[in-house]
Amino acid sequence: MLITLLVSIAVISLISVFLSLLMVIADATIGNYGVVKITINEGIRDLEVLGGQPLLRSLQQEGIFIPSACGGRGSCGLCKVKVVEGGGEYLPTELPFISEEERAQQIRLSCQVKVKNDIAIEIPEELFYVKEFSTTVEKIRNLTHDIKEVTLRLIDPGEITIKAGQYIQFVVPEYEDLDEEVYRAYSVASPPGDATHVELEIRLVPGGICTTYVHEHLKEGDTVTINGPYGDFYLRESDAPIIFIAGGSGMAPIKSILLDMEKNANPRSAQYFFGARSKRDLFLLDEMKALESSIPNFSFVPALSEPLGEDNWEGEVGLITDVVRKNVSDAQASEAYLCGSPGMIDACIKVLTDLGVSEDRIFYDKF
Amino acid sequence: MHNFAIFFASIFTGNILLTTYLGMCSFLSVSKELKTSLGLGAAVVFVMATTTPLNWMVYQWLLIPFGLEYLRFIVFIIVIAAFVQLTEMALERYSEGLYQALGIFLPLITVNCAILGASLFMVIREYTLATSFFFGLGSGIGWALAIVAMAGIRQKLKSAKIPPGLEGPGITLVIAGFMAMAFMGFSGMIALT
Ligand SMILES: Cc1cc2nc3c(=O)[nH]c(=O)nc-3n(C[C@H](O)[C@H](O)[C@H](O)COP(=O)(O)OP(=O)(O)OC[C@H]3O[C@@H](n4cnc5c(N)ncnc54)[C@H](O)[C@@H]3O)c2cc1C
Ligand code: FES
Fold this sequence. Notes:
Order of helices and strands of chain A: HEEHEHEEEEEEEHEEHEHEEHEHE
Largest sheet of chain B: none
Strand content of chain B: under 5%
Structural class of chain B: mainly alpha
Oligomer: heterodimer
Bound molecules: flavin-adenine dinucleotide, FE2/S2 (inorganic) cluster
Distance between the termini of chain A: 67 Å
Helix content of chain B: over 70%
Number of helices of chain B: 10
Radius of gyration of chain A: 25 Å
Order of helices and strands of chain B: HHHHHHHHHH
Number of domains of chain B: 1
Number of domains of chain A: 3
Shape of chain B: globular
Structural class of chain A: alpha/beta
Largest sheet of chain A: 6 strands, antiparallel
Number of strands of chain B: 0
Shape of chain A: elongated
Helix content of chain A: 25-40%
């Protein structure tokens, strides 16, 4: 009896040990790609990394952060990078996210491409300046029933260089059912002048991973990791009149831009249309009103689409698209900056082009 | 002769998916598109045709001599998992084309019960090494045939009007039932023993 038991244990262990050994050997031989070279932007930077890992991860380990929202599972389609050489064939997992045009340009999902040999890639230069920051939550306050303002104080590095309007990525740690870090993009609401703080405006998305974490778990004093800055949503240098349009948490980047304009006493004429459903969705009204007097040529136009009786609302009523159409007559020379839901942005782009704004002067971040 | 009989029987009369309903999970989830189901089908053919004889060797030469037949479940699973893992690594390294076509599906089928099922049937039916190979190959082809047929039907189904409660897995199971009945038409031809 005892003998049978021992024999079975021995045989099972033997098989397992043999197979594990086989795997270890395979890992060290078949799975070992040695040191390979990643050439970035024709040699502006060269990296030497251990092969066999996804490109996204290899770059991250060397301090180059490609925007990504799904943590490399191939489900967000954000981690696009141009692979000039050595990327191999497209994988079926990439194809849903890659358009014909991008395919012709060799744009790949960097979380799916494995670095198996020397590889050459091109990335926007600004990504070199993207860093990872550890921060602590200095303050959390409610802006509306579903938007919280989160102020982060940078610890390491202690300062960030950012353009007004850009965004950072918030790293959500493992919590509850989440068994893997995920990243979510949030526009920075604080002005670049304050390099030691990053202020975010985060709207609760029911069932959302990051927003639930921020609204229900995050407390003042907690540690938060972010990386950034990213994005090309910032004020272009020109004299053109500006039309800002935002809804909900789309306020964030525009607030940063406005505070920056205030600091520089920017004389450009600017109109800011802010759309909300009813009064309980409006916030920072006093701050925006105050900016009307401190920015030379600025006016703020809040509009409600469904004001309630008790709101006693005397301002503009209607969809933001209608309000813009009503208040803007000639926009041929204007630049437009939009921020909000994809639906809202698409509708606004249509109105703006109708009003004569050329499409290459319309800038937006779709949330 | 016997081997060929087994081979054809395991494709048609004793189709592992449609007669024993093994390997259902990937059958239901991956049969949405013809191309992916072809890839998965090919991966199953390969893995079944190789792991069944491999497990035969482990069983005859290791488990029987030590009187450990009762350990076959766990041992077969470990062998299949290790083999699949190794194959995937090798494909990824040495053959981009094959990795594209087969490799990415391999992790999906490590835990496919049809594959373990084939190894266990091979034991119950006391096949020889050669027969095990033909049985594994045939079962794999049978499974692939079924999933490809299902994918073909499901592509047509996209434009069909399906009662709301039956959408997705519901209607797929109903169709699998019909397919099984259709395959019963083969049952008089050759028996799987
Ligand atoms: C450049 C940029 C800047 C941003 N800035 C801000 C900001 O300043 N403030 C802010 O609040 N948000 C901002 N966002 C949005 C933010 O990044 C998150 O997407 C959002 O907060 C939801 O994250 P989550 O993890 O809570 O939700 P997730 O877990 O990602 O899920 C969101 C919810 O919506 C559903 N869902 C997911 N995708 C879709 C879809 N395509 N259509 C319909 N439903 C879907 C999910 O099932 C889930 O219920 C920005 C996004 C971008 C790209
Ligand atoms: S990181 Fe999300 S698709 Fe690559």
